[in-house]
Amino acid sequence: MEKEKVYIVGAGVSGLVAALELEKAGFSPIILEGSDTIGGRMKTDEVDGFLLDHGFQVLNTAYPEAKKYLDFQGLKLKTFDPGAVIFDEKDSYLISDPMRNPLKVVGMAFSKVGNFLDKVKMFSLTQELKKQSNEEIFSKPAVPTLQYLKDYGFSPTIIENFFKPFFRGIFLEKHLNTSSRMFEFVFKMFALGHAAVPEKGMGEIPKMLRKQLSSTQIYFETRVKEIQGNAIHLENGEVIIADRIIVAVQPDRVMKQLQGQFAPSRKVINLYFTLQKSFMARPMIGLVKGDHLVNNLVFMDDVSPAYSKGDRSLLSVTVLESDLEEKDLVKEVQLELAGISGVKAEYFKYLKGYWIDYALPNLDDLRYSMPLTECKITDQVYLAGDYLLNGSINAAMTSGRTAAEAIVHSYMRTH
């Protein structure tokens, strides 16, 4: 008996996971992808021999869904050292393992970042969160992260020196208004796992998902204009009739009835520079304290040498917001980098920048998972994407799996 024709709009992580799960149930889905490649927001370009991820992204090795779908050895994951290098005007200091083993943190460095009580509170928070399931964390009442940190009793010093620069880079917003549920989840994941990148860039993750597909077809540069009922209207005028559709892009783009339902996404600017050699010389993230354009920086070849070629180091810089023109922004960032490193501004050779308008969904009510019924809009249309849960690779995978399970469940009920 012919199984139903299932179309998936979008070949990002959630769309690929949905296809994988549908294949396991005997379906042969078709993915319609508007661009010329898979991965959605997770892409890696090669420019002059350097590997450039679209935005600084990492995979946390503790993500439950990532463990399910990815072979970490096959990705040749390269891990960051836990902790961070804090850049504070003319000073810089190392804080190692603040979330993994706070009581072992070297005394001197920590005293600049926070006090002894902060260290104890870090430890107790780590222990508390490790005992809680992810579902429990996401079912608690939520407050803004900044409020949560103050209520927990962390000192203003550690909030300014560590929490703000570290979590701004993860949440992509300056004021830590993000829900405390997301903070607790991320904190727990960093306490349990490592931040890592595949040896050859984050684009290897969707490639690995695609390699597991055997009966899925992917049509590239196939832009969907609108979905009406079970009809998919393409921008080229073609109309496809589907039995079921998974919308694995933000649905207001293709469903007129959902326009205006989503807050504007969080944006980020990612600039790449090359330098003769890394001034950090360790696989760690650098956090810039205070009000600067640069929020965080990483020499990617300190983590994975394959990111760089020849004798130059590759520096990834994250800027949360700026209205400057590219040329002016690059100049300002070069001056900031010179200020924190002591290396002359002109030695930072600009390679390429990414202005990412959709970097993270902007959500109020964050969840870890959802019932199958909630990703179903109509009998024909199902939704997948991290915006349904929380902004993470884990959530993108969860949502793809849930949409596929909902279709399988519905199919079994009606056949």
From TrEMBL:
Indicate the segments forming the Amine oxidase domain, all copies: 13-407
Any one GO MF annotation of this record: oxidoreductase activity
Which spans are transmembrane here? none
Query: Superkingdom of this entry's organism?
Result: Bacteria
* Protein's UniProt name: Flavin containing amine oxidoreductase
